Amino acid sequence: SVARLLEAFEADPALAVAAPRAFIDEARELRLPAQSPPTPWAELAELASHRFPAWARRRAEERTRRDLAHWTADAPRDERMLSGACLFVRRDVLDALGELFDARYPLYYEDADFARRAARAGLRMRSVPSAEILHHWSRSAGAGEDFAGEPARRHAISRARYLRRWYGRVVERTAHAMRGELERRLARRGPRPMHDFENLGVLSEAPRLAFDEQDVLLEWSVTPNFSLAAGMLVDGEEARLSARGWSWLFAGRYWLRAVRRADLAVIGAWTFVKEAPARAWPVDPEVFADEAEHRYRRVDGDEVEGWR
């Protein structure tokens, strides 16, 4: 993957920042989505979509169209933002921008801030699908109920700082007040599902899902409006996440939907609760072995061929 990223820079002297394709699981089944710089209006619209199913479906279709192009790309693509999980940045770009991430963002938004600064400087950012990484998704923040409390507090601090910096204090305070009102209404009335989800109950193993057709995109999300979803490209007429992929997911509720890749029509929707906690043991480095790349480890002071 390092070699593929370096090749992208060599092929394009104007390239300033590059990022690999990111997967959640070692089997490379769940792909992480494309990134867009957040705006106050988009974040409020996402929150409001929990109450308006038709609006939620329209927003999800727009996101799926963008993400599917990202997931199926076979050549570098220009991007407005790249995930901070893994970035390759030219040394002179870092010197010009002054810093990579602003440490005053305690949880998230630091990569969005970097993307804004890079765009303001007129820099080219590209995703490189031939380079791949495993991203230990949300291990610092948790998911679902685990996100409440301290992670949520730090996330709110980062959001406020980002909005103040790029939209001004008036917009930040207005967005904060509107968010509070929307959250209170959601707490009183509850969300309205955007699909008729089939409830699969509490599961100890990954569900096996069957379709009547091929070339399906199976989206996995921890929110019922699919504001953020991982993608699983399915070529056959059924899908099941591998045991290693399943064991890597957090415990909690998930929402899935099957989308026909040709026209983005939704052909199935499910929800379930994963009861087993995510495993904590280290990942297997051989999963991402590359015959053309060799890495070495030191054993008793000697360099020994190890991970490939």
Shape designation? globular
Which structural class do the helices and strands define?
alpha+beta
Radius of gyration: 20 Å
Helix content: 25-40%
Strand content: 15-25%
Number of helices: 8
Which strands sit side by side, in order, in the main sheet? 5-11-10-7-8
Biggest sheet features: 5 strands, mixed
Task: Give a quick precis of the structure.
The chain is of the alpha+beta class and 308 residues long. It has helices spanning 2-11, 40-48, 53-72, 91-97, 110-120, 150-167, 169-189, 243-248; strands spanning 15-23, 77-78, 88-89, 124-134, 198-203, 209-210, 216-221, 229-234, 238-239, 252-260, 266-274, 296-299, 302-305. The strands form four sheets. It has a five-stranded mixed beta sheet, with helices on one face. A four-stranded mixed beta sheet has the order 2-4-1-3. Strands 6-9 form a two-stranded antiparallel sheet.
Structure keywords:
about 300 residues, 5-stranded mixed β-sheet, globular, single chain, alpha+beta, 8 helices
